[in-house]
Design goal:
This protein is mainly alpha-helical and about 120 residues long. It is built from six helices and three strands. It is about 45% helix and about 5% strand. The chain has a three-stranded antiparallel sheet, with helices on one face. α1 crosses α3. The longest helix has 16 residues. The chain starts with a helix and ends with a strand.
């Protein structure tokens, strides 16, 4: 997901792994799951005639542009109040993530640099 959004934005971010459970919320997102999953819509296609309007990649440019416009110059917790309410202080904790990366630790767990 991050790589696909990066491609739309024309940038390249670094992703870090935390070995084991890190500090509560650190590195987690509303899209974080304990296990990967795949959604199969073939039954909806077969029985209901469902057809997606876009595939994931095709939907990103418009969606990312809208989100960037909404957030520009504003506090993320203000723009996404329900996410902020659900996630509390860990929502959009980019400064805490930056400090953990600089220290090489997150909640006592080692942070693994990309390519390690």
């Amino acid at each position: 997901m991050a790589a696909a959004v990066d491609a739309v934005l024309g940038c390249e971010s670094e992703q870090y792994l935390i070995r084991g459970p890190g500090a509560p919320g650190l590195g987690r997102t509303p899209w974080s799951l304990q296990h990967s999953f795949v959604m199969d819509v073939s039954r909806a296609e077969r029985e209901l005639g469902y057809r997606p309007v876009h595939d994931y990649a095709a939907s990103l440019p418009e969606t990312v542009a809208r989100l960037v416009d909404e957030v520009r110059g504003r506090e993320r917790r203000e723009v996404f109040p329900r996410l902020a309410a659900r996630w509390g202080r860990t929502a959009f904790a980019y400064e805490a993530e930056d400090r953990a990366i600089a220290a090489g630790k997150a909640g006592g767990q080692t942070i693994v640099a990309p390519g390690s």
